[in-house]
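Example 3.2
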Amino acid sequence: RIPPNKPKLELNDQNIMEYFINCNTSSLAPFTTPLDKQKAEHLYRRLGFGASVETINQAVGQTATTLVNSLVNQALSLPELPAPTWANWTRANYPEDDDLRGDMVNSQYVEWRLSYANSILSNNLRDRLSFFWSNHFVTELKTYDAPPFLYEYINCLQRNAIGNFKTFTSEIGLTSAMLYYLDGVYNNGNNPNENYAREIYELFCLGEGNNYTEDDIIETAKALTGYTERGEIGWEPVTFDITTFDPGAKTILGQTGNWGYDDVINILFSERSNEIAGFICTKLYEFFVHPDSSDDAGNAQTIISGMATTFIAGGFELAPVLSQLFQSQHFFDDEAIGVIIKSPFDCYYNLINETNFTYTDTTVAASVNYAGMLSQELFNPVDVAGWQRNRSWVNTNFLIGRWLSTEAFLDEFFNQDQEQFRTLTLDAVGPANSNTSNPEIVVRALVNKFTPKGLLTDQDFENAMSAFKVEDVPENYYGSDYIAGGLGYWNLYDQSAPKQVFLLLRHIVRQPEFQLK
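Structure, written as tokens:
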């Protein structure tokens, strides 16, 4: 929440997180009050990338249990993206000429990047999660640079995004993308490489220094040896070569034996189940609820502990723990709304979904390119620790870029079809207000649609009103009620209305409150 003694929110301030103290004291008990618009918007912004007025209206009045169960079941049953024709290609399938091969590889990257970007835009929990996990089980495309490996990696993320975390950990570690990225392909029994062993503890499962030792890392590296067969042609799936496996005894987390890859996963999840559950549930909490998981003012640690209990009891299945969280009073508490800073993809995809404007592949490609310019390059997080989120998205340079790029989307939508701005507004105000000549009703409906809790001050709202009232509509044309057939009265069917909405949205996307979800 924003303490009452704080000045107007400045999202380019390096001390921004002082504003977001987690004061949420609600419990994991189910939230049973039927959802209103604000709560429904909150749910869709966190579980996906926002939703249209129509979708939100359908959600209003439903219980959290009903709606969350529906979204989780949809995520569980959603098929993965179809494999591209080149999914199993090796270097033998590409032209020998370097330039021709480079052009083909680039076209495949563009194709797959667009397919996946469309998938995460489609507002389903499965790909909100697969995108989240790409920033947890990090790889960098520029390191392995092979389209078939990228397909395999994304397919693994989608298949496991809301599945079993133990299975997920096991499968992601054997993708060729990960084996190349963290040097598994060079982890030879006579010269072990510790990169993946270190990250499976530090970043993927336990957290830095959380009940493991340097000796555990060294011994784990030995157990992970052998996945070094890279083929002779290039871009072939990495496979196991027993001649490069360390056959000796290893002691890992107190257990001694001739351990291999599967044994590492089994030992880790049996010996450190509490640590894994706490670490992963903290990451889920900070991503979906609040970036502050301390107990300075609320009870975040109690919530995380309850989630961890569910996680362990369910054998590390993700769906039960996420369902519990998303249906809870804690998730819907006012202190959880509007406290996470949007990533670049959030900014663009929320705008597209919440306006329900018509978009094309060109629009999606532009969102990917703009996000990359703002340091959220798809398939290329900054390093193995991933994007750090929140404050890192809104330094001075990035904030200006967010404004300009988001305005560019609005400009393109307006140039393509001005009437969709009128349609959006008529949907937002509802049938009862479709003939209103009161600009306050219109502005408030749109402000409430695109910000989690409205604007901070009355003056901020007046500024939004001023942005909406264009000069060629005299002040006396506005009134509290529209008089049918009367002269000199404005309403949403006026010729100027689409442009007015366009100008208002350009104003809203520059406000600090728009940067939050």
